[in-house]
Task: structure prediction
Amino acid sequence: MTGIRFLHSSDLHLGKPFGRFDEDVRTDLRKARDESVPALIDAAKTHCAEHILLAGDTFDQETPSPRLIRQTIATMAEAAQVHWWIIPGNHDSLTADLIWQAFSEHGAENVHVLRDDTPVAMMDNAYLLPAPCPRRAPGFDLTEAMAHRETPGDAFRIGLAHGGVVDFRPDEPSADTIPPDRAERANLDYLALGDWHGTLRITPRTHYSGAPERDRFKHAGRGSCLLVSLDTPGATPEILPIHIGKYDWQELELRLSPGLDAVSSLLALLPTDRGKWRSTLIKLHLRGYAHLDQRMALRDGIDEIKPEFCHFEYSDRNLHTEYQPDDLERIARGGALRIAAEALKAEADDGELSQPDRDIADAALTRLYSLVKETAQ
Result:
């Protein structure tokens, strides 16, 4: 029997607005997302895969622009040697008539939208068992039917579904959730899942491919798809992650202590290849303690490098100031500024105040120090 090799992807979320970012960043991220389909085609050609499985949420919403839908269809059709097998997810469910009617009217022979759970032959010896989302919140486990769907005994059985497994939310049981052992229960050789935007192995036969372009810091790194190889029915599938995303999402933590070179420590966390900064998004958490001059040097260092990144944000809410005897002297030797600085320092050091109130006073004193320093320059 001939084996089968295919790409497993999901959660392209074409048309995602990225509203929390600045316009320049939104434009870059949307453009990269639009290039997900060509990237998958290139990966399929490189790895000699004739099939691409999309496990839901190809589009970010049920009413994307007709232009986006038609251009996506046209791009998929250009690679006639690659067959696309697509199920609707919760963001582009079967109620998204605008999308799926367009695919019905304009889709090419190599583009297959699976609208029900009837097994479909990918090739003579391989059957897909799809579980398309009928609506955003189905209210039941869409993969349960796979256990009752018959296919030829000598053929591969490949499930294609969109949703969360019970391991994701153990404290919030839901009728929608997929049992982690669904592949074993339904005698599947492989279960291709979508919904989780990071690559995740549930069992040797059940995987989330992750999004080809990441869209949040929760899922670090570059987007990917999975190359799945099945040699014979019943054998353990061979899984190879393929990184195809343009943008690298990194959530980092920098712990500081007084006397540490904060800027050098920050640079040591960042990609060593500075040319990659433009395609990197950083979310930095600052923690620990620092002198005022350390904080100012770090702030200036961040301001210096931020423009080289696609996006750079940081939080210093858990970075506390350790004051030196001459810090207040640097703000003012007397007058209203000195009185204000002393009052803020007293509040920042007051153990009887709540931590949020102390943090506010700490931040205000740091800001005052910064303003005085800027004025003096």
